[in-house]
Design goal:
CATH class: Alpha Beta
Helix content: 10-25%
CATH superfamily: TusA-like domain
Number of helices: 2
Distance between the termini: 32 Å
Number of strands: 4
Number of domains: 1
Oligomer: single chain
Length: about 90
């Protein structure tokens, strides 16, 4: 199990979510990604991304200087959903 730090301080939406998605792809199940963001929209974007990828946000810390997410890579990717909301594709 490995923990990788990703400093996305100073980046604005949508870059934190895009770079987080890219950093999660090569990780193995059980690995963790610690993401540091300063964009307030990351508090919405990163959890939504993690929900889409099927991974799990373990810890979220907020301070005056930013937000820290600890994301655990899960074993299987989330099943894609039909955009119409009718269930899996």
């Amino acid at each position: 199990m490995t923990t990788i730090a990703l400093d996305l301080s100073g980046l604005k939406c949508p870059l934190p979510a895009l770079k987080t998605r890219k950093a999660l792809k090569p990780l193995r199940a059980g690995d963790r990604l610690q993401v540091h963001c300063t964009d307030p929209l990351s508090a919405i974007d990163i959890p939504n991304l993690v929900r889409e990828t099927g991974d799990r946000v373990e810890i979220v810390e907020r301070s005056e200087t930013g937000i820290v997410f600890l994301i655990e890579k899960m074993g299987l990717p989330a099943e894609p959903k039909d955009p119409a909301g009718d269930g899996p594709l």
